[in-house]
Amino acid sequence: MSGSASAAMLLEWARKIQAIAQNGLTFTRDPFDRERYVQLRELATVMLAAQLELPVARARDLWDGEFGYATPKVDVRGGVFQDDEVLLVRERSDGRWTLPGGWVDVNDAPSQAVAREIREESGYHSRAVKLAALVDRNRHPHPPGVYHIYKLFFVCELTGGAACAGAETDAVAFFPVHALPELSRGRVLASQIERLYQHRLHPGLPTDFD
């Protein structure tokens, strides 16, 4: 097994241990079991810190806000196209480009969430016209991450607005699908943008999953 594959597997184990601990702390009423689940959570935190080269305190903060039954998080991304060009925004956090998108808020429909994210990050107004893909981030070659995430990719239609960077973005532009800038690969892959473009060209394609 390669070093990168081994690291990815250890990170997967850390997420699994964290989920077991979180679920146990949610449902147990036994003080001794609770102590063991707290120890499990701390073990997961140390594993996470080692794999992502984070201070243990920082790793602990990432999971301290997680309560209730552990489930994957939901991320939406919107593909807005003009001819053979796709709308991208540049993230302030890493200086790289991505499809506009982000976490789905409680009480938001996914289609509303993606339209909101496009507006907040790019200044453009849009509407979702097709769910092109629902993928498990862990099954695609994204860099290792803390959370287990489901990513929803929508083909979207431009309805108005104008380019305007947001609080988390510092540039907005359209790029040829086959000549993309350096991408924020934790958020999106070139292959995902290209597949989204195929869905835009061929609306009858079935939704991709996993």
Total number of distinct structural domains: 2
Tell me the Rg in angstroms.
19 Å
CATH topology of the largest domain: Nucleoside Triphosphate Pyrophosphohydrolase
Low-confidence runs: none
What's the main sheet like?
Answer: 8 strands, mixed
Percentage beta strand: 25-35%
User: What is the total tally of β strands?
Assistant: 8
Helix content, binned percent: 25-40%
Spatial separation of the terminal alpha carbons = 23 Å
Helix-strand sequence? HHHEEEEHEEEHE
**CATH architecture annotation name of the largest domain:** Alpha-Beta Complex
Question: What would you note in describing this structure?
Answer:
The chain is α+β, with helices and mostly antiparallel strands and 210 residues long. It is 39% helix and 28% strand. It has helices at residues 3-27, 31-52, 56-64, 110-122, 190-201; strands at 73-82, 85-91, 97-98, 101-103, 124-136, 149-161, 169-176, 208-209. Strands 1, 2, 3, 4, 5, 6, 7 and 8 form an eight-stranded mixed β-sheet that branches. Strand 1 (73-82) and strand 2 form a beta hairpin. It is elongated, with a radius of gyration of 19 Å. The chain starts with a helix and ends with a strand.
